[in-house]
Structure formats: C-alpha cells, structure tokens
Design a protein that fits this description.
The structure holds 2 protein chains of 2 kinds. Chain A contains 12 helices and no strands. By secondary structure, chain A is an all-alpha fold. Classes of the chains: A mainly alpha, B alpha/beta. Chain B: This is ABC transporter domain-containing protein.
Chain lengths: 321, 339
Amino acid sequence: MWKFILRRFLVMIPQLFLLSLIVFALAKQMPGDALTGISMDPRISPERIEELREKAGLNDPWYEQYGRWISGIVHGDFGTSYTHKIPVSEVIAERIWNTVFLALITLILTYLLAIPMGVLSGRYNETWIDKVVTGYNYLGFATPIFIFALIMLFVFGFSFEWFPTGGSVSSKVDARTFAYYLSKFHHVILPAFSTALITTVGTVQYLRNEIIDNKFKEYTRTARSKGIPDNKVYTRHILRNSLLPIAAFLGYEITGLVGGTVIIETIFSYPGVGQLFVSSIGLRDFSVVTAIVMMLGFATLLGTLLSDIILSMVDPRIRIE
Amino acid sequence: MKKPILQIENLTTSFKIKDKYYMAVDHVSFSVSENEIVAVVGESGCGKSALALSIMRLHNNQRTKIEGEIKYKERNIVSITEAQMNKVRGKDIGIIFQEPLTALNPLMTVGDQIEENLTFHTKLSKEKKRLRTLELLTQVGIPFPTRTYKQFPHELSGGMRQRVMISIAIACNPSLVIADEPTTALDVTIQAQILELLQSIQKETKMGIILITHDLSVVAEVADRIVVMYAGQVVEIGTVKQIFAKPLHPYTRSLLNSIPSAVTNKQRLHVIEGIVPSIVNMNRDSCRFSPRIPWIPRHAHEESPELHEVAPDHLVRCTCYKHFYFQDHRGVKITNGIT
Ligand SMILES: Nc1ncnc2c1ncn2[C@@H]1O[C@H](COP(=O)(O)OP(=O)(O)OP(=O)(O)O)[C@@H](O)[C@H]1O
Ligand code: SF4
Ligand SMILES: [Mg+2]
C-alpha cells in the first residue's frame, strides 16, 4: 500500500513538470505582464520601466525565467504577488480553507441529494417517482450553473434576505467563537446548495442506472432466493454494489469541485481560491494565477490517487500492493 | 408410494414482451417426492430456467404471469403473499444456479452470504450461526472452512464457488433443492464431484432434487425420473429406466442419439438440425418439434398432441412416434440404429 502510494507520487513528478511547462508557456503568451499596468502611467518614464523589467528578470531568456520559477516552487516559494505585495503562498493560504470548506459542504449536500433520489428512482423505475426524479435531472442537465446560482442569489440572498450575499464570514463576530463558525456556515450554505442542486444530477443519474442494473443481477436473485425481504435485499446487497463506483469517483469529485468553485465563488463574492483566480487574471497577477493552476493540477493528481485508494478499500476484488 | 414434496400442475409461465404475454412454460405438470432426483432435460431455450424460477417465484412479477398450481406439501405457493413466500424460499426450497461467480455477491464474504440464510429463517445466535456455517462448509467439501469463511467469491475456484452456492441452498435443511444446470459452467472433472456431492447430501437429508440439465449422460447416473421439455412443454416423462430403455418421443430419441457414448462406432453422431423456436415466433397450433424432423410426412403428425400414458408413470406427447425413424445425412432411413 505505502509502496503503491510512493510510486504514484513518483509518477506525478513528470506529470507536474509537464504541466508547469504548459502553464509557464501560457502565462508568457498572454498579453501584458506584471508591469503592463504601470507602463500606462505617464509619470513613469519608459526607461524606468525597462529598468524595472530588467531587474525583475523579465528580459532574460525564457528558460532562465522558467528555471527561477520552478526552483522556487520546488522550495515552496511561488513568488510574490504583484497586486497584494505579499508572497503568493500567503495570498492562497488565506483563501484555501474557505474553498475547501465550500467544496466539502457542496460535496456532502450533493450526496445527500443524490443518494435518496437515485435509490428511489432506480428501485421504483418507470413509476411516477422515477419520472419526477428523471424530470429534475433533465432540468439540472439543461440549466447552466451560473444562471441558476444568480437566481438563487437573487431570490434567497437579495429578496428574502435569508442568506448573506457575499463574503465568507460576518465581520461582526470574533474569530474562534461559536457565532463565528455559525456565520461561516451561514455564508457557505447558499453557494454550496446552489451548486449541489445542479451538480447532483450526474450522480443521481449514475446511481439510478447502477441500481437498475444491479437489481437484475444474478447475485440479487440469489439473495431473493434466500427469502430475504425486498427492503433488505436493497440495503444488504443492491445498495452497496451500486454505491461502489460512486465511492470510487469521490476523489475525482473533490478535485472537480475545487476547480468548479471558480464560477460560484465569483458569483457569491466568496473569498476563496476560485475568486482569487478570476481577479488575478484580471489584474495580470500571473504569479498567483500560475500558482493556482499548479495547485489544481496537483490536487487533480491527488484526487486520482485518492480514488484508487478508496476503490481498493471498498472493493475486495481490487487490491493494491 | 413416497410422499410428494412438490406437485406442479398445469404450470404456465408467460413473459410480457411488448405488451403481449408469451408462454415460456406451457401447462407443465410433474411431481417430486422426498429422496428423489427428477431431472428436467431439454436444449437451451426450452424453458427449464423459466420453470425453476417460477417455482421459486423469482421472476420479475411486473412482466411475468404465472398460472396453474405449485403445491409445496399440499400448499399452493402460487397464490400466497410475497411475505409468506419469503418464508418458503431458502427455508423449504433452496436453489443452485448455473454460474456461481455471478450468483454470489462480490462484496460479501462467503461466510456472510451463507449466514444470511440462517439470519432470516432461524433465531440462532451469532456464534451458533458461525458454527453452523463452518459445518456447512465442511459438509460441502471445502478443505479449509475457517479460511474460506472469510474469503470473497473471486478468491475461490469455480468448483469451490459452486460448493458455496450449494451450502447456501441447503443451509436451512430444505425439503427441496432446485439445481439449475449446476455443473454446466464447470470443468468436466469438477462436474462429477459436484453431482456426487448433491447425491451424498441427499442421502443424509432425504431432500427432493430437481436437477436441470441439457446433458443426458449426467442424468442416467443420478436421476430417478426424467422430464423431457421441448419449447415450454413436457414431451415425455418417465423413470430413468423407461426413458433410456424405451424412449418414445422423437425429441427424446434425438437427444439420446446425440450423446457421444451412446453411438456405436459405425454410426455418425446424430445432430438435431435446427434450433428451439423462440417464445415469440413459436407456432403453437401444431406439433412444435415437427419442423425439426422434416422427413416425417405431415399426415403422420397429430394436430395438437396431448400427453398420453403409455405405461405406468410413462407419459409421452403424441402418437406419431410410432412412425418416427431417423435418417442419416444422405437422407436414408436408419433401421439398425440404437433406437
Ligand atoms: N425474463 C424473460 N423475458 C422474456 N423472455 C424470457 C425470459 N426468460 C426466458 N425467456 C425466454 O423463454 C424461453 C425459455 O428460456 P429459459 O431461460 O427458461 O431456457 P432454458 O431451457 O433454461 O435454456 P438454457 O439451457 O439456455 O438455460 C427462451 O425463449 C427465452 O428467450
Ligand atoms: S406430432 Fe410428431 S413430431 Fe409432433 S409430437 Fe407428435 S410425434 Fe412428435
Ligand atoms: Mg437455463
């Protein structure tokens, strides 16, 4: 098991290296650089800007710039943010827990919605309840998440004022008090729920199909032949087998959500990594942008590994050594 | 006369295909007594599994219609509720399926899968259930019961899995076990072992067995009586002796003639031309087997043949068997054949 994990980490190195090259190249390709902003300023002479460029190393050949950048990353230094004037790692650290919290709550809500819906529509497929769930799924697939999130924000945030319309915590509460955590929760619930209501449809559909598939499997017939009542056949046999592929997907799901918070955080003005990403692109703060992309890339690889580990834990047929 | 455990009368099972029901089991009647092995034989698609699953009521009841009577010890189990049926399944009647890998839950240990039966039909304590399960594993010839108890189905060989399947079926000492092609998926050497195992269990428990197979050579050695099915119907019933010594129906004779060992060196192995008609495309108005023996003239066949008793306990559908003969590959009548 540990050998397997170590091996997977070793395989990640070339993958991340490749990603870093692409990220670096793209960042260089983008119009403008960190000094584009001040170069518009007529008070600063072009000579001075050229001097600053030279000092920042922006005139060096690309491989030298890349070398400096990558060796920094290896040492945990992502450079300094041009807009925030503090190390990139600090800028991200401030936000990352908000994003993780949002993603986690979204994930929990997604499954809380998906499991009952998927199980009911799979078990009673072709009945009215299945038709209702399937109808919901079609709507969910057809609705763009940003439009739905805007509607939710408008209705429950601005009209009813049930939930805050921005931020991650109220400024009126002290850190580390119960009220503080409650406020965090209050802020996260609307963006999380809005996302979950839409993203859950994939899992619902998948689970429904798994249930329908499994209820006609031969082992289910064997279970029935033992005289096990229908309800118990579901809880003891069908459900576990149907949840298996979904559990295995958990790893990918988590990273998908962390990446997916970009839109949602922006709409709900939620100070997470996603929102930081969007604003940093606008400000040409490339050191932040590249750091976030690298981080997401790493998270994706971790998610894949996590999925493999989960699968080996829930499925006795799969053993990793 | 031995006590019948199961009496099937005019059992008809129909499947719904595109809003219409088609019979896969067509007015089948036979009985099984204690300590008896009744073999049900017929080619693929004759309705053998449909029959087995009807007895256990394991068909999808939204798409299946079951008519007639299945009396388990005088009680008609076709009409009882699902909850009542759950007390019969696994306890009074056990079933063994053809493919032991897919028939076992891949995520559950062997021990848990056997114990489940005991959980639903007995009040045994956890420890007692474990002991009974280990006893069962020993009884079915598993070499290391305590180890196998904790293993998963994929960790066992095909033969071992089928032994586990058998121990599930017999866990609650049922009076009847239905074995639906229990050896078809296994190696030849293992096949014999599994059949011997079933026989040895029967010796102890006196249970009745319905052994479904398409392999007549298996039947000769283990069965007491034989039910020959073709296209959902019983075409011939008799004791093993009757069927092997004096097979009457052309289908029975064709089946017997296709067993390699029954063929004398000079003769070619007889192959039954054609296939079993599907339940949707079957012509039910005339004899169902006649299209496969085209050399027999039309007038020799009955319109819709009925089962006749030709000797005590020996029933055969139709009378035209009197005119039936085999033909060799050149179309020449075989007169010196074994049948
Ligand atoms: N659930 C079902 N729905 C529709 N048709 C079915 C169903 N089950 C069986 N049939 C049809 O009924 C007929 C009998 O099938 P059955 O499985 O009983 O055959 P069998 O004798 O067991 O054959 P085999 O040796 O292949 O197991 C076949 O024509 C089959 O296509
Ligand atoms: S009519 Fe002919 S083919 Fe048909 S059952 Fe009778 S003997 Fe067989
Ligand atoms: Mg079958």
